[in-house]
Structures are given as structure tokens and as C-alpha cells.
């Protein structure tokens, strides 16, 4: 595809101030091979020093909006792979040393000598934690030379700024002598003036290259650590996964590494601080003698106080991180279970939980910001108070000094304080950096799971494919103790008493079996007996505690159907070379060819994040096709047929498993016992950790439990599932997608300047009831504090010049008053900014989450999870921590610059001539810079989102990726995305330095101009006022560039505000959530009668109807079975009932029009048991009753009725405690891992049933609710539904037709319309769709008898 054509609509000539100078032609997009390597290492010394190699790109950016293709390609040495290989080599060596040292300490503690030990190494390493300094050393080993070069440049910068007051002293004394008529040589004054100009320029040049080098090193460190996190995530063992769930790893990557990146850029300031301090002290002692020690002593006291406060800030940051992780986990959990949260009406409860967590987080953050800003106010005030103390002592010592001594000393105190002002935030950022490094080190310290490649022994018998010899396996389970330490729960023993007969899964013990090459093995057993665990054990995913597992050939586990956000073809190929013939055949045998016809772009259709556009059956078949395409010798299939109908299942069995895969060793775990006749052998899980292995006849002849399970089975054709595809998604795919199959929305990216509406929304969010008065109050406080600051030094010049002929006490009193007033005003002004930004951040974040909760399903379907998480991690962190410091810096510096320029005009009116020239030059440089910088920053933000999305996607599919040996491929993709992000980021950093270099030239000329005016004594300026002006001008030397950078940084950070505003203000919303005035009776619905009247529903405006003119009356308590062919509209009817999509027509429940009431009232009055059960991390109690709305007795009752806790053991189970070794598997306190991964799919389904029982709604919807349970459990579930929901209205989308043939009525849908409706026996007797489905399923007339 032509890149230029794809972006043609964006390649427009932009109208800017200087566009007329560059012609009207629009620069084309470069082709990939035309892109240039980042020039910094490949250009001449002048261009590198001044960053002029960026001029060609900046000219392009001035004429049109920059695109990703315009960015420079990274130098190979800066690619993340090249850097990571070197870092990893160093880290591995240091990691081995640290582990050996830790083990040695353990041995010494046990008084063991030599290398002998009574404890194995793994046990000794359980509490091992890598010192974070090892990671720091590794990064320094990698980037040390570049970092030290940048640090050396910082030393030169400080040297220039510290020696500048010496030249100022000579110049002031020169002016003072001229004022007294001594007429020194004018050449000296000109020389001093030129010297000042050159020192200002070279100081700026050095600081620019220091910043460039240190910040790029920070970005490189972040890139390396990001790859380290992902690589470690692929290797984490069970304990590590428990300690670092996906949400926490995301938080480390999104928040902690960002802080590490920022802190590394400023860290050299901390260890170079003493050099500047010592030099300043020496010069102060030379200037004003021992009186300088008074100010320096005060300086040291305040520095010690600051050090103490920084330690407090460190502890506060650690506490805040706990709540940050909780908040990010809440968002991630919501995104993963969005549909479930909506159907259960949990939005308010989720929001309350989020607000509580956010409030705790922001309370700490607010305190931290107030403390930080007080330290900043203190640092701004330091030159005033330290110089004041020194000058007062100097006066009382009667030690006469020249005007040059006084004002050069004042400049030195400012330099001293400037260093201190940079140290304070640098120390604060360093504390955040240490926290980040420690969290990374804790993750790296976790043990690695055994590599799958090393798990199996080699099998020398060519006739065998697999051999297990006395193999035992055990899942690690974890509980949180009172001290929040993670401990392994001891292995449960099978209880001989009835007190806890269903404890946690006992594991698999002493398994011995041999499987021949090419055999087809069926694994079966009761729910929770360990079918999936056995496959995980054979494939190496379940920890082995004894025995051996040997294999002959390659092996693959086809487990939970995970799909990535890519096209269908890419999901099937999964990195394998494309073979058209092989691919087409696999698509056919996996019954995917008909699905491709439903997709507008066929197999090139994007499936969406988490396969959101696919039905369970489609995901299962894509997952199967991927496994088949991988062409392994041994394929383990975990219940791959549970989500497909009988017809498709039969096709897959015959054409794929028994056909295409014939000759390969196939092991299929299933509860569909009707398939068992095709098996060569059967593995039956007894439920106590043992198995029964043999032919069907052998197992049937000796195992009574197997016989009992077989009684519930029937022929596969008896379970024709009318619909294995979610027609909602199919209908959407047909009408919603573009011709190229693209589904996911492009990330919202503004171009050119930030909208004024974004600024106004932000201002009003932070101002509260004061509205626009609040920023006016901030500006007024800033103006008053700046006046007080400048006038304090101005008053010093009055004192030196004895302007008012008053006694010394008069000058000293007002000097002291002005000095302390400045501190109070600065503190007040900074506090206002903190309050404003904190309130805005809280408002944006909370509103964004609230709007996300009420966004329509279509938004989540088409938006990558990583993009949303980016809003609540990086973007939220910008609003929480970064933007307020930039606001404060910009406003403060702007006011000081304006005040200084006014002061210059007052004393040197001719300087006003230069002001317009400076303003025009400043504007043109800024205009040229902003045109490109804002777009480069936005590109970096978009690329960062892609890194986050891929990182999160990889974490969610770890097992599938590892099973397919694709870890390396995903790491390569991650590296490529990081490199693309750094292409924009490195360019952005360099563009900032380009700006600073150009502004430094302007500032140098301004200093030269003022110095020359003083030297020539224009307007007969006296030495005291010349000293004042030079002190003030030196103070703003760096401020012009910092001010513009702060302004552009604000605009760049306003991108985060802009993106959060989209969620907080502009995000599309569902219908009103609560309409209290329209709420029906609190007891509604009492009968559960439902009436559909001419209901027509489309998923969004412009899409074809998924339900057409549907009319149906359902009596209260009636049981309705819903069936129909694929795409018939069954799930769409349920969507309409829950108003997940709005409709035309009318639906009433107990005569209440559901379109007139709030969504919350409607959804909380219904219950649903979905096909894919959702469990949240926490425990059983929190999953049944997430928001503590029911008593424990109700929860225990629901567990009992769902068959999870035996009725006769209920009282004993209730009295168990978390520490009980024999804790029941479904005890309310039992831990639930992320996604319920410590429970089987069937068990999760039963927990979903228990949740519905707790809810106790009058209307129950079953959406293929027993798709993942065996027949015996299915029968129990149906019995529970019959008994417990006897007086409830039930709408059941059929999974197995036999389960609905005894319902009151059957509704058959086709193309969104009712084509058949009536009693089951009547429809059966009628020659129609239902009859044909029954015949295909083997259902006879006898099955309808009660």
C-alpha cells in the first residue's frame, strides 16, 4: 500500500507566520528506504554542537504536519536489542553473584561450613531480593561514558556560571569608578562586557549538551528496562505471577519506569552539587570575608532540613504507589470484564471503589506536592535570606566592601541557591527512581519457571510419543497472610471425613502411562477433576514435584482460546511462514471457511483486542487452526469442541482431529463423552489425583465413577447447538468494518495547537466554584511575590547608594521585612497552583473513569486496552505530578523575566529599543520550533500507546505465546515498537536543544547589550544599580529558554489533558444510568412478565438491524428456550433486553417500559449466567458479592445450591479458617487468582451460577451457561435452575437442545425475526426449523415426555 496515498489527506500546507518564505509545495513523505539515520553521530561538529542537523526536518514540519515516516531511524547502537544484549550479559553475571552471596549468608546463619547445605538452593532463595544497585550498575556499565560526558559538561556549565560573578565584579567596579570620575580605560569595560556575553553563551552550550545526553540516557534506560520486564514476565514462576499480577507489571512499566527515565536526566545535578557549592563558598569568602559564613551556615541548615524532608517524601511515594497499583488494577479489571460489569449493573459500586482508592492516592500526592512546593519556595527564597544574613553581619562587622563585592556576592548566592533549587526536585525525583528500581529488582528477583524446552526428557523408544513414569504434579496456591507475605499453602490431603470433602485440587500423583505415536487419547472426568491440569502437566506448565515426563517429537498445548489484536490470518499463522495450500486446507478442516464469508475482508479482518468481535466458537476454531498450522508431532487439545455446535464439532472431529491430524499423537480433554468411541485409549481422572488409563472397555469394566459419568452422555449428534457464533458480533462485522477489515479505531491524535476548549475545561476543573477567578488569583499572587522578590534586591541597591538619607536601621528593617514577605507570598502562590492542579487532576481522572464505566460496548470493542490503560497510567501521572511543576515554572519565570526587563528599562531607557527586536526574534524562533515539536511529541505519545498495548497483550497471552515458542517473536515486536517510540522521543529531545541553542545566542547578545550600556554609563547609571541590573539579568539568563520549554512542555503535557478530556467530557455515553423519578416499585419486577412489541435493534446508527420487528409476550415464571441457526439474532435479543444496545419499539417488564427507566434499575433487576464466566482477583466472597451487599449466610446458601459445597458439610466448612490446611476449595475465604486461573472453566461456570443465586432476580438469562461443564454437572445445574428459579422467568439460549425441550415454550429465530414460537412438542410435530434441528441432534418424540 502506498504510504503517501494513505496519508495524503494529512499532507496539507499549514498556514504559519513564515510559510510564504518556503514556497507552496508540500514536502512528500519519505519512503522507508529514504529515511535517514539519526544524524547526531553522523554530522560535522558545528551542526552537532548547535543541533542544526534538525533544520531539514523542522522546515518540513513548518510546512506540513509531521508523520511517523518523517522521523529519523535510530542508529543501530541505540536500538533496544543492541543495548539490551550488553545489559543482559552484565546482569546475568551480577545476578548469579548476588544469589550465591545470599545462599552463603543463609548457610552461615545455619552455621554450615563449606559448600554443604541441609537446605536446597530454591528454598534458600525464596526470600532473595536483588539489590537494586545491581541494576543501576548494569545501566551505568552500558551508558556510563555518555552519562559521564554529559556530567562533565554540567561541571563546565557550573564553572562558567560560578566564575561569571568575578567578571561582574570587575564590570560593576568599573562603572562605579566611572561614576566617581576616575575615568578608567573604556576598553576594559568593553572587554568585560564581551567576556560576560561569551561566558553566558558557552554556559548555555554546555548545559544543552548535558541535558541532551542525560535525557537520552534516561530514555535508553527505560527502553532496556521495559524489555527486561517483558522478558522476565515470560519466565516468571507461579509465585512471581502471584506477587506480580499483570496489573502490577503494567503499573511498573507505565509509571515507575517513566519516573526512572525522568530522574536519570536530572541525577548528575545531585553528585555535581558539591563542586559548585565549594567554588561558590570560596568566592564568597574572597568577596565579603567571614560574614559569608553566616549565610552559608544558614544554607547548610536548610539543606539538612531538605534532606530530612526528602526522606519523608520517599516514604510517602511508596505509600502512594500502593494505591496507584490498586487504581490501575481496577481499570484493567473493568476493561477485561466490561460486558459483565454492565450486565450486572455494577457501575456505581465500581465507581465508589475507584473514588475511594483515588482519594487515598491523591491525599498522599497532595501532601507530597505541598511539601515539594514549600521546598521550592524555600529554594527561591534562599538567595534572599542567605545574602541578607551575610550582608547584615558584614555591616555590623564594619567591614567595608565595594559595590562590586556586594552584588557579585548576591549573584553567587543566587548561583548557590540555583544549584540548591535544582537539587531539591532532583532529590525528589531520585527517591521516585529508587522506588522504581527496587520494584524492578523485586520482579527480577522472582525465580524463573523451568523452560518448556528443558522440561521433557528424551524418549528413546521410537514407537512411543509420551511416557510418564511415577510423575507427580502440584499447582502452587497462595494466600495472603496478615503480614501480606505470600506463602505456599501446604498440599491438601484427601479428607476421609465429610468435613471438607472438596478441598483445593490435590494435584496429580504418581502417574505412569505410555502413549504410542499416532494414538488418539481422550481425557475425561468430572468437573474440577484435573483434565486441563493433566494437559498442562504433560506440556510443562504445571510444576512437577517428582518422576519424569519424556517425549519423542515436538509438542504443543492448545489451551484457552487467546487471540491477539491482529487479522484472522495473522492469528492462525502466528509467525509461521504462509503456505497457501496448507493454510486453505487447515481453514477448511477447522470449519472456518464459512466464517470468512461473514467477514468483509475475509481472513484479513481484524478481530479486535481480546478477540472482541469473535464468538466463543470462532475463537476456539482459530485457536485450533493455529495449533494445527504449527505442525507439531504431539498436540494436546483442551476442550476445543465445547464452544462449537454438533455439526461443526463432527466436521472438526472427522476432518481435522481424525483426518488431517491422523498420524500425529492427539490428546483431547473433553466432557463430551460421546466422542470417546473414536479414541484409541481413555484417561479418566478420578478426582483424587490419580488416573485410570486404558482402552474404553478396560476403563469401563473397572471404574464405577467412569460408568456413572457415561450414563449422562449421549451421541454427539444429540447435542446440536443451534448457534455457536455470537450473531451480534457477526452482524457488526458485516456492517461495521471497512473494506480492508480494519476494526480498531485509530488513536485520537490532535494536530497543530491544542484547542482552547481543552485549556478552558482544565481551568474550570481546577478552579471549582471560583471559575476563572482562581487563575486570576494565581496570577495576582505570582505578580505580588515576584515584585517582592525583585524589590528586595532593589532595596539593597538603595541601601548601598544611601538613596533616602535615612539611618542604616531604616534600610535594614525594610530589607528584612521584604525578605520574609517574599517567602510567605511564594509559599501562598505555590500552594494555590498545587491546589488548582491537584483538583483538576482528580476531576479529570475520576470523570474519565466514570464516563468509561458508562461508555457503550462499541467503544470497548474497538479500542485497545493498552490505549485506555495509557490514559490511566502515563497521562494520569502527568496530571498528578508533572504538569503543576511546569505551570509553576512557566508562570514564575515569565513574571521574573517581565519584571527584570521592566527594571532594565527603568534604569536604562534605551534598552527599550531592544525589546521589540527581542520579542520578534523570540516569537519567530518559538513559532518555528512549536510547529514541529508539538507534532513530534504527539507522535511519541501515540507510539508509546502502541508499546503499552503490545506489552499488555503479550502479558495476557503468555501461556499461548510460550506454548507456540513465540516468546522471542513477541520480544522482537516489542523491541521494534520501542525503537519506533524512541525515534520520536530522541528527535523531540534534540529539537528542544535546538531551541535552547538559538535562544542562548539571543540572550548572549542581550547581556552584551546591557553590559555595554552600563560600561558607557548611558543615563549616568551608578555602580549599585549596574550591579543590581547585572545580578537580575544573570538570573534570567537561562530563563528565556526554560520559559519557552516550560511553555512547550505544558502544551505537550496538555496532550495528556486533551486525551483524558476525551474520556472525561467527550466520550460517547449510554442512555441515562439513573432516573430516580421514573423508578418503578422497589419490589419490581414481582411477576417477571416480559413483553416485546415490534422491537428492532441495530448495534449503532447506520448498521443493519440485528433484531427485526420482534414481538413476544412472556408470562411471569415462564421458561422460554431460544434457538436458531448461526446469525439468527438470539444474543441480540438479550442485548436488547439489557439495553446494551438501544432499540426501536417497546419492551416492558411487568408493564414497565424499560426504555423509560434508568439502566441501573433495569440491569440490577435481571440476572445472567454467561457462556464465558468472569471471576475477579480476590476471594470467593468478593466474587459472589463484590460490594458487600449480602450476608455470609446468603453466600453459603448459594454455594450449597450451586453444588459447590455439600449440604451435609456446610456447617463444618463455614467454621474453617484461612489457615486450615484442609480449607475447602470453595470456602468464602479461598483466594481467586487473576481471571480465576486457579479454577477450571467448569468450576468458574458454577461460581457464576452461585452469583446469580445470590442476586435472586425474578428474571434469569442463560447464555449457553453450561457450555464448559460435563453432562453430570449440566444435569445438576438444570436441576438447580428448575428448583431455585421455579417462580422466575427464564430465557435460555440453547447449548444442548435436550436442556430446553421441556421448557414451556421454544422461540426459533432467523435473521432477527421469530419464525417459530410455541410449545416444544408442538414445534416438533410441525415440520419446521426446530424439527430439523431436533432430528440433527437425534432428539426423538420420547425426549419430550415429562
TrEMBL record:
Skewed-composition ranges (Basic and acidic residues): 722-742
Single GO term (MF): ATP hydrolysis activity
Q: Which residues form the ABC transporter domain?
A: 492-712, 1090-1336
A GO cellular component term found in this entry reads: plasma membrane
Q: Region entry Disordered: which residue ranges?
A: 714-742
How would you describe this protein's topology in the membrane?
Answer: Multi-pass membrane protein
SMART domains the record matches: AAA (SM00382)
UniProt superkingdom: Eukaryota
Does tRNA processing show up as a keyword for this record? no
Key words, A-Z:
ATP-binding, Membrane, Nucleotide-binding, Transmembrane, Transmembrane helix, Transport
User: So where does this one cross the membrane?
Assistant: 147-167, 190-212, 262-286, 292-314, 377-397, 770-792, 813-836, 897-930, 1001-1019, 1025-1044
The record, for InterPro entries, names:
AAA+_ATPase, ABC1_TM_dom, ABC1_TM_sf, ABC_transporter-like_ATP-bd, ABC_transporter-like_CS, ABC_transporter_C-like, P-loop_NTPase
What residues does the ABC transmembrane type-1 domain cover? 149-432, 776-1052
Instruction: Specify one Pfam family.
Output: ABC_membrane
Q: Does the keyword Transmembrane apply?
A: yes
| Protein location | Membrane
Q: Which family does it belong to?
A: Belongs to the ABC transporter superfamily. ABCC family. Conjugate transporter (TC 3.A.1.208) subfamily.
Q: Under what name is this protein listed?
A: Oligomycin resistance ATP-dependent permease YOR1
* Organism name: Ogataea philodendri
Q: Highest lineage ranks of the organism?
A: Eukaryota, Fungi, Dikarya, Ascomycota, Saccharomycotina
Amino acid at each position: 500500500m502506498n504510504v503517501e496515498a494513505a496519508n495524503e489527506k494529512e499532507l496539507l500546507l499549514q498556514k504559519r507566520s513564515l510559510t510564504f518564505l518556503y514556497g507552496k509545495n508540500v514536502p512528500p513523505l519519505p519512503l522507508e528506504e529514504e529515511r535517514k539515520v539519526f544524524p547526531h553521530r553522523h554530522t560535522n561538529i558545528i551542526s552537532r554542537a548547535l543541533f542544526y542537523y534538525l533544520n531539514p526536518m523542522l522546515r518540513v514540519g513548518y510546512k506540513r504536519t509531521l508523520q511517523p515516516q518523517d522521523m529519523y531511524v535510530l542508529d543501530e547502537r541505540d536500538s533496544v536489542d543492541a543495548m539490551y544484549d550488553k545489559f543482559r550479559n552484565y546482569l546475568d553475571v551480577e545476578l548469579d553473584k548476588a544469589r550465591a552471596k545470599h545462599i552463603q549468608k543463609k548457610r552461615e546463619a545455619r552455621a554450615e561450613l563449606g559448600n554443604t547445605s541441609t537446605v536446597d538452593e530454591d528454598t534458600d532463595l525464596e526470600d532473595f531480593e536483588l539489590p537494586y544497585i545491581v541494576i543501576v550498575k548494569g545501566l551505568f556499565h552500558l551508558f556510563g561514558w555518555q552519562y559521564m560526558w554529559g556530567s562533565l559538561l554540567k561541571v563546565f556549565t557550573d564553572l562558567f556560571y560560578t566564575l561569571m560573578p568575578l567578571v561582574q565584579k570587575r564590570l560593576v567596579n568599573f562603572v562605579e569608578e566611572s561614576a566617581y570620575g576616575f575615568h578608567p580605560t573604556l576598553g576594559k569595560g568593553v572587554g568585560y562586557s564581551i567576556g560576560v556575553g561569551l561566558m553566558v553563551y558557552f554556559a548555555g552550550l554546555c548545559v544543552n549538551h548535558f541535558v541532551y545526553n542525560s535525557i537520552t540516557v534516561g530514555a535508553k534506560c527505560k527502553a532496556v528496562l521495559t524489555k527486561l520486564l517483558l522478558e522476565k514476565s515470560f519466565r516468571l514462576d507461579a509465585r512471581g505471577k502471584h506477587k506480580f499480577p499483570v496489573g502490577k507489571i503494567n503499573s511498573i512499566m507505565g509509571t515507575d519506569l517513566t519516573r526512572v527515565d525522568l530522574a536519570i536526566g536530572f541525577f548528575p545535578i545531585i553528585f555535581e552539587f558539591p563542586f559548585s557549592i565549594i567554588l561558590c563558598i570560596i568566592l564568597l569568602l574572597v568577596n565579603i570575608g567571614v560574614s559569608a559564613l553566616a549565610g552559608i551556615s544558614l544554607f547548610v541548615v536548610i539543606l539538612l532540613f531538605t534532606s530530612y524532608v526528602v526522606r519523608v517524601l520517599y516514604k510517602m511515594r511508596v505509600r502512594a504507589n500502593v494505591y496507584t497499583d490498586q487504581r490501575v488494577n481496577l481499570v484493567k479489571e473493568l476493561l477485561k470484564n466490561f460486558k459483565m460489569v454492565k450486565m450486572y449493573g455494577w457501575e456505581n459500586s465500581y465507581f465508589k471503589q475507584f473514588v475511594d482508592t483515588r482519594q487515598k492516592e491523591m491525599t498522599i500526592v497532595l501532601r507530597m506536592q505541598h511539601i515539594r512546593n514549600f521546598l521550592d519556595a524555600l529554594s527561591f527564597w534562599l538567595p534572599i535570606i542567605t545574602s541578607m544574613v551575610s550582608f547584615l553581619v558584614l555591616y555590623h562587622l564594619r567591614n567595608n566592601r565595594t559595590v562590586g563585592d556586594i552584588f557579585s556576592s548576591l549573584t553567587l548566592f543566587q548561583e548557590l541557591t540555583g544549584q540548591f533549587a535544582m537539587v531539591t526536585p532532583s532529590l525528589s525525583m531520585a527517591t521516585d527512581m529508587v522506588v522504581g528500581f527496587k520494584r524492578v529488582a523485586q520482579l527480577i528477583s522472582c525465580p524463573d519457571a523451568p523452560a518448556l524446552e528443558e522440561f521433557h526428557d528424551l524418549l528413546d523408544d521410537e514407537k512411543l510419543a509420551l511416557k510418564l513414569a511415577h510423575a507427580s504434579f502440584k499447582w502452587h496456591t497462595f494466600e495472603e497472610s496478615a503480614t501480606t507475605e505470600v506463602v505456599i499453602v501446604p498440599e491438601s490431603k484427601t479428607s476421609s471425613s465429610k468435613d471438607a470433602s472438596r478441598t483445593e485440587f490435590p494435584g496429580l500423583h504418581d502417574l505412569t502411562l505410555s502413549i504410542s505415536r499416532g494414538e488418539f487419547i481422550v481425557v475425561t472426568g468430572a468437573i474440577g477433576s484435573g483434565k486441563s491440569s493433566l494437559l498442562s502437566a504433560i506440556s510443562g506448565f504445571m510444576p512437577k514435584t517428582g518422576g519424569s515426563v519424556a517425549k519423542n517429537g515436538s509438542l504443543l498445548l492448545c489451551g484457552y482460546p487467546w487471540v491477539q489484536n491482529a487479522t484472522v490470518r495473522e492469528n492462525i499463522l502466528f509467525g509461521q511462514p504462509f503456505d497457501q495450500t496448507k493454510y486453505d486446507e487447515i481453514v477448511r478442516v477447522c470449519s472456518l471457511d464459512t466464517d470468512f464469508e461473514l467477514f468483509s475482508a475475509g481472513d484479513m479482518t481484524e478481530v479486535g483486542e481480546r478477540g472482541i468481535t469473535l464468538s466463543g466458537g470462532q475463537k476456539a476454531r482459530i485457536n485450533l487452526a493455529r495449533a494445527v498450522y504449527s505442525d507439531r508431532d504431539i498436540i494436546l487439545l483442551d476442550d476445543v469442541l465445547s464452544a462449537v455446535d454438533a455439526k461443526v464439532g463432527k466436521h472438526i472431529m472427522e476432518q481435522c482431529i481424525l483426518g488431517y491430524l491422523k498420524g500425529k499423537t492427539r490428546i483431547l480433554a473433553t466432557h463430551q463423552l460421546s466422542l470417546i468411541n473414536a479414541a484409541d485409549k481413555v484417561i479418566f481422572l478420578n478426582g483424587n489425583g490419580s488416573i485410570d488409563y486404558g482402552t474404553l472397555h478396560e476403563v469401563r469394566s473397572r471404574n464405577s465413577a467412569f460408568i456413572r459419568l457415561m450414563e449422562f452422555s449421549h451421541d454427539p449428534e444429540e447435542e446440536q447447538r443451534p448457534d455457536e457464533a455470537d450473531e451480534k458480533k457477526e452482524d457488526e462485522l458485516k456492517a461495521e468494518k471497512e473494506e480492508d477489515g480494519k476494526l480498531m479505531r485509530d488513536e485520537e491524535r490532535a494536530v497543530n495547537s491544542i484547542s482552547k476548549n481543552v485549556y478552558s475545561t482544565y481551568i474550570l476543573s481546577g478552579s471549582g466554584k471560583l471559575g476563572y477567578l482562581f487563575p486570576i488569583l494565581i496570577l495576582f499572587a505570582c505578580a505580588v511575590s515576584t515584585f517582592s522578590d525583585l524589590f528586595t534586591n532593589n532595596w539593597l541597591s538603595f541601601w548601598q547608594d544611601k538613596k533616602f538619607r535615612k539611618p542604616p536601621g531604616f534600610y535594614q528593617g525594610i530589607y528584612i521585612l521584604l525578605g520574609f514577605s517574599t517567602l510567605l507570598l511564594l509559599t501562598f502562590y505555590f500552594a494555590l497552583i498545587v491546589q488548582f492542579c491537584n483538583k483538576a487532576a482528580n476531576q479529570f481522572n475520576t470523570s474519565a473513569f466514570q464516563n468509561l464505566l458508562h461508555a457503550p460496548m462499541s467503544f470497548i470493542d474497538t479500542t485497545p486496552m493498552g490505549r485506555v490503560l495509557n490514559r490511566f497510567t502515563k497521562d494520569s501521572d502527568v496530571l498528578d505530578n508533572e504538569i503543576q511543576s511546569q505551570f509553576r515554572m512557566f508562570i514564575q519565570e515569565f513574571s521574573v523575566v517581565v519584571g527584570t526587563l521592566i527594571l532594565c528599562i527603568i534604569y536604562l531607557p534605551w534598552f527599550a529599543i531592544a525589546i521589540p527586536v527581542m520579542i520578534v526574534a523570540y516569537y519567530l524562533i518559538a513559532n518555528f520550533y512549536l510547529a514541529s515539536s508539538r507534532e513530534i511529541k504527539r507522535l511519541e505519545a501515540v507510539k508509546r500507546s502502541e508499546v503499552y498495548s503490545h506489552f499488555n497483550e503479550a502479558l495476557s497471552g503468555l501461556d499461548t505465546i510460550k506454548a507456540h515458542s513465540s516468546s522471542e517473536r513477541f520480544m522482537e515486536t516489542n523491541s521494534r515498537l520501542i525503537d519506533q517510540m524512541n525515534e520520536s522521543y530522541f528527535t523531540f529531545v534534540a529539537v528542544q536543544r535546538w531551541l535552547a541553542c538559538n535562544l542562548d545566542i539571543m540572550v548572549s547578545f542581550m547581556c552584551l547589550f546591557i553590559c555595554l550600556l552600563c560600561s558607557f554609563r548611558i543615563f549616568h547609571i551608578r555602580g549599585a544599580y549596574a550591579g543590581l541590573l547585572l545580578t537580575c539579568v544573570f538570573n534570567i539568563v537561562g530563563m528565556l529558554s526554560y520559559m519557552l520549554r516550560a511553555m512547550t512542555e505544558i502544551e505537550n503535557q496538555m496532550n495528556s489533558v486533551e486525551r483524558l478530556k476525551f474520556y472525561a467530557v467527550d466520550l460517547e455515553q449510554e442512555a441515562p444510568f439513573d432516573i430516580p423519578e421514573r423508578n418503578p416499585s422497589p419490589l419490581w419486577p414481582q411477576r417477571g412478565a416480559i413483553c416485546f412489541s415490534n422491537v428492532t435493534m441495530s448495534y449503532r446508527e447506520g448498521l443493519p438491524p440485528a433484531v427485526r420487528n420482534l414481538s413476544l409476550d412472556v408470562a411471569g415464571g415462564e421458561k422460554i428456550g431460544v434457538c436458531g441457526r448461526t446469525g439468527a439474532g438470539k444474543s441480540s435479543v438479550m442485548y436488547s433486553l439489557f439495553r446494551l444496545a438501544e432499540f426501536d419499539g417497546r419492551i416492558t417488564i411487568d408493564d414497565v417500559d424499560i426504555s423509560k427507566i434508568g439502566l441501573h434499575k433495569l440491569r440490577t433487576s435481571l440476572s445472567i449466567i454467561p457462556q464465558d464466566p468472569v471471576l475477579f482477583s480476590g476471594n470467593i466472597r468478593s466474587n459472589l458479592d463484590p460490594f458487600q451487599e449480602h450476608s455470609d449466610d446468603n453466600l453459603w446458601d448459594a454455594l450449597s445450591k450451586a453444588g459447590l459445597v455439600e449440604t451435609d458439610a456446610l456447617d463444618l466448612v463455614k467454621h474453617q479458617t484461612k489457615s486450615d490446611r484442609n480449607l475447602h476449595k470453595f470456602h468464602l475465604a479461598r483466594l481467586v487468582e487473576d481471571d480465576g486461573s486457579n479454577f477450571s472453566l467448569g468450576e468458574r461456570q458454577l461460581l457464576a451460577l452461585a452469583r446469580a443465586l445470590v442476586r435472586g432476580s425474578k428474571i434469569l438469562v442463560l447464555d449457553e451457561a453450561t457450555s464448559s461443564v460435563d453432562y453430570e454437572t449440566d444435569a445438576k445445574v438444570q436441576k438447580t435452575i428448575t428448583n431455585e428459579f421455579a417462580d422466575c422467568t427464564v430465557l435460555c439460549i440453547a447449548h444442548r437442545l435436550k436442556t430446553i425441550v421441556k421448557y414451556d415454550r421454544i422461540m426459533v429465530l432467523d435473521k432477527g425475526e421469530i419464525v417459530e414460537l410455541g410449545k416444544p412438542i408442538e414445534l416438533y410435530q410441525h415440520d419446521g426449523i426446530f424439527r430439523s434441528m431436533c432430528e440433527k441432534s437425534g432428539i426423538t418424540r420420547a425426549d419430550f415426555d415429562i
